[in-house]
Amino acid sequence: TMRPTTTTTTTTARPTTTVSRCPTPRVCNCRPTDVLDHYTDANGCATCRCLAGPTTPTVRPTTTTTTTERPTTTTRSTTSRSSSSSRSSSTRSSSSSSTRSSSTSDTTPMSIGDIVNTNPNFSRLRDALRANNLLDALMDPDASYTVFAPDNNAFGKLTEDQVALIGMESNNLKQILKYHVVPGVFRARKLRKGRTLQPLFKKDTLETRRGKIGNLRVENAKVKTANIKAANGVVHVVNKVLIPDVETL
User: How does strand 145-150 pair with strand 233-238?
Assistant: First the structure.
């Protein structure tokens, strides 16, 4: 599209007064207490600054008018905008997809074994499971378990007799650990109603019930934190190590 462009510059003539400073200041007629500068021009000394003195205007006419026509070419590129829009849309789509993928990855729960392995409060449980080759089994993504996990404080509450029982036979600790693991997923809401569970240790069972203040209890232990979601089951943190009937070990 060709469009003419006109540029006009105009300077209007204006009077210019040439004056010089009067060497002798005088008392202002309207304000006698002030001594102001006076000016002189072709007609002699002017009055003080607060009054209008005679002036001799010198006119310098300066008028400039310029008209220039310049062709302006405007080109609209539909293809470029379409390509840019397509690239922008593709970028947004890719970014959105990446964000969703990252969000999904970040919210995927860990396995029970990973929870025990990475939580410092389970370091004693982790060491015991690892020493008895049970930790890897709790990382199995195809498995489904409910684990009553004693934290480090729970291990610290073991009595001398319990510690002696654990050390009495080399296999005792492994059987006690298996007593904490139940196949299947059992959440606190169902367990509070009272359930008899069969753990991996087949010679004894676990009894759950609702405590006096509404908390979940399993055997003689209290569940401190319930329903920790895992990729292959659920974890309930207990405040005591669960010991099966001594005669079953």
Answer: parallel
